[in-house]
Structure formats: C-alpha cells, structure tokens
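Let's practice the habit of predicting before peeking. Look at the sequence and jot down your guess about where helices and strands might fall. Then scroll down.
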Amino acid sequence: MPDPNKSLLERLADFLTPQPSSPNERRLELIATLREAQSEGFIDADALSMIEGVFQVGQLSARDILVPRAQIDWIDINQPLAEVIKSVIEAAHSRFPVFEGNKDNVIGILLAKDLLRHATEKDFQVRDWLRPAVFIPESKRLSVLLRDFKDNRNHLAIVVDEYSGVAGIITIEDVLEQIVGDIEDEHDVDEEADNILSLDNGDIRVKGITELEQFNETLGTQFAVDDIETVAGLVIQHLGRVPKIGELIKIDDIEFEVLRADPRQIHILLARQIPKTIS
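Done guessing? Here is the structure:
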C-alpha cells in the first residue's frame, strides 16, 4: 500500500524508479495513488476512468470481451447476392465475416462499403471483394491486440479456440470501449438478447442495464428492491456507491465481478453462483 507519510507527488515519483514489489502490487499501488489524486482534484473522474481502463486492457484477453459465435451476423458466400445485400442493410455493420460450407471455415471479411458501392456492377462477385481475415487465439491479450490493430490497420479479428473453431469476433471498438466506455453509434440497438450471456467457464456476462426481472428469470434468483429496476442499480444500492473495476460484490448467493465501469455507472458485470457449503 502507498506510504501515507509521503506526499502524493513523492509517491507518483516512486513509480519512475525500480522497486522490489511485484508488477501486480505496483499496479494496485499506482491505481490507489491515482484514485487519491482524483479525490484531491489533481485529475478528473473521466481521466481516472480511462487510466483504470488502460490497466484493465492489460489484464484482459480476447475471450473476455469477444462477440460470441452465436451472435455474429454471418455472410454465407453461397447466398444469392440479393440476400447478402438485404442482410448487410438490416445488420448495419461495417464488416462481416464470410464463410463457406460451415462457420469454422471463414474465407474473408466483406466490407459493407465495398458491397454497396459495387454490387450494381456487371458480373459482381462477393468473393472478389473479400478482405483477408485475421485470426487470433482466445488467449491474446487486449493490449497486444490493440497494438496489432493499429499497426496493421485492421478493425476486426476472428477469435479461434484451442480446437481451431471460431469462438467469436472482436473489433477495435470492443477494445477501445474497455478504456473509454461504451461507444454508441446510430446503428446500435439495445436488445435484451445481448443483456445476458453464458460463458464457457460457467460465469454469466451481464450488462448493467439488464432489468432485474430478466436477470431473475435467467438465473432463478428473486432479487426485488423498491425503485430499483436494473442489475447495476441493485449492485450500487447494495454497496451504497459505484464499484470499481475488478471489485467483487456478494449479494445473497450470487457473486458479481465488475468487468467494466466508470465513476458514474456500471457497464458490464460477471455473475456466478456461490457454492453452498454443507454444514
């Protein structure tokens, strides 16, 4: 923990010189010092939130934030062109993974702008306009992935599991949102289907805006608090404050872990059942 006998500036200066503590201990000490700097008015809450987001990116891997395979808007290379155009317009994304035969056989990425600009040309073939697909393992660190996106000018990667199957996709926007919070555009739709996702390890990924009624129906819980409608509201009401990234909160037999948050609100949580002990 930071030395209370040192000034804030002295503690910040300590991080510029080698120390015997582990990198994780140093990271926690630095975050604690920066939070104190924010409370004393040296930096604002938004800046602190972004700095914490940068640390969060260093701790997360692709599997933590990917868009699951089942929620991808796919393009089948053998679809009629009219169906492809209809799917692209309805989904309103800028990039689409294209497969042939089965969804583990991704043959490229179709850019909506390429399709919509050239689809009226004579003898247009979707295959001729595919961009190369980038494949990454689930274990790839977000900090490394962000650098790769920047260096290679890519915006989307296909995430594969240990058996070389497609686990999902991840975009540069997904990574940046870990730092700056949700980036919404005019095409974003807040659908309940995306609010609660089951992960392979048994955890449940929950959006903070998920209504308690939907959460209760999915997990079999019975949370009910007057004037509280969302999972984020439940957690904040229980703590009496907005929790920090990485914080664990136990409510009844559910443990919540804050995956993404800023000083004003909770964006994403992980929820897991607490095993009942036999007395």
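How did you do? DSSP finds ten helices and twelve strands in the chain.
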